[in-house]
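Worked example 2:
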Amino acid sequence: MTPATVIGPAIGPATATAEWAAIGTTARVVVTSPRHLDAARTIVSRELAALDRACSRFRSDSEIAEIVAADGAWTTISEVLAKVLACALAVAERTEGDVDPTMGADLARLGYDRDFGELVHVTTSGGDTRFRLGRRPSWRDVELDRAGPKLRVPRGVQLDLGAIAKAWCADRCAWRIADELGIGVLVGLGGDIATAGDGPDVGWLVRVQDLPGIAGGPTCTVKLDDGFAIATSSTMSRSWRRGTATLHHILDPATRRPAQPVWRTVTVVAATCVEANAASTTAIVRGLAAPRFLAGLGLPARLVDAHGVVRRVGGWPRDVA
């Protein structure tokens, strides 16, 4: 199953594109100067390697794993993890906890305990999927000392920084490439796309769809202005079977279970990929209240419900194809 739900098509003869598998998704870089493509890809590859070492739930040698092993004690962390976690905690506060980075153990309990490329090929069984009453640790219990930098999380808590980490990395890579190479660039990590610098004359054309291969699924292509970002959150792209149930990876912190699949996908345009991703993920969690929430933010958004009906809010860009 292809995890990308927002894809950038060919922009024109003056651009060059590289695409490869990385961190459980598809990495894509499009540059306005073909001779800088290799340098741009190197920047993205190095940033992804550092991100994976810091934030992967599926590597035994990652910093996330070391934090679990610390069993509630203070742990010295890298600048990369400190920056990603600071971003995740800020998002948690802005979304009133709807995007909570402390639900890694809940995802594992529900069966998402390995790289998704492996998980999609198996049907998991067993395990307790019920929600236990009583107070559970949340983002408010995470203690981050940026001066260290060092971190302490409650015993038994496993961080899951996947969505925000990819969005943060897409922003960082785009800004670095534009600044260091002096070119226009689009960086896509799965459903998270960031741009920086002066784009191609025809603009950044981005195709939005539920999933590749879904017959009759609503799609569109929009023009993304230079320096803007777009992100899609989906209840379909990362789903798996557990017994007779179909689960997905966006959890509602109130229940610690997958959010109700009111929307198949939510796509948001914003000034940064982090902002777009936070809004699209929160919209999935809030379900029927999502259109009003997104309209209140003033962000252009496109929502596709369980029946494939499209709803647009906030001045969603005009389709160009």
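The two ends are 25 Å apart (CA to CA). Helices lie at 37-55, 63-69, 79-94, 104-109, 116-119, 162-181, 273-286, 290-297.
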